[in-house]
Design goal:
alpha+beta; 2 domains; 4-stranded antiparallel β-sheet; 3 helices; about 30% strand
């Protein structure tokens, strides 16, 4: 019988994500209200504007809700926006895993999104890092990022609220001690 999944909630979303979404909504509202009063439109702009705002915000809000980091049996499961990554613990190089501040370790910053969903302050999906390594990211905080190398050369960059707890559990499952 499998053990229950251990959940590690991601760090809270930064204020910049909410400000960005608010700015999009405000721009859509202002744009809708500034539309010329054209009688050829099937509906007045004041009726169309709320639907436009809803269309622009629903998809990002649904994607932002799907953030999950869990250990299920011997797998690390990361759900980030529309992406899910399942990695067996033995495929992780936990001896070299560490917690970093991306402000100091700029080589690990996501630069180019290969297949991703991103907003200012939120990165989810597959990225090319500044050091040209590929990584799967779920980043909501930049000051405590858990960097986990995989044995295939790729990286996992995660922002759990308590990265030390997640790393300790993964090392315990793998029977690995941290490097000194």
């Amino acid at each position: 019988m499998n053990a229950p999944a251990r959940q590690f909630p991601p760090a809270p979303l930064p204020r910049s994500v909410w400000l960005f979404l608010f700015a999009i909504a405000a721009l859509a509202l202002v744009g809708g209200l500034l539309l010329p009063r054209d009688e050829s439109l099937p509906a007045p702009a004041w009726l169309l504007t709320p639907f436009l705002v809803a269309l622009l915000l629903v998809a990002p809000l649904l994607a932002l809700r799907r953030r999950r980091i869990a250990v299920e049996g011997d797998e690390l499961v990361v759900a980030a926006a529309i992406y899910t990554r399942r990695v067996r613990v033995e495929a992780l190089d936990l001896e070299h895993a560490r917690i970093v501040d991306l402000g100091e370790h700029t080589a690990l910053k996501p630069v180019l999104g290969l297949n991703r969903f991103g907003l200012p302050g939120f990165h989810a999906g597959h990225y090319l890092l500044r050091n040209r390594q590929r990584a799967f990211c779920l980043l909501t905080a930049r000051d405590r990022v858990l960097v986990i190398p995989q044995r295939d050369g790729k990286l996992l960059l995660l922002s759990p609220d308590r990265p030390h707890d997640l790393l300790a559990l993964l090392r315990e499952l793998a029977g690995t001690q941290p490097r000194r």
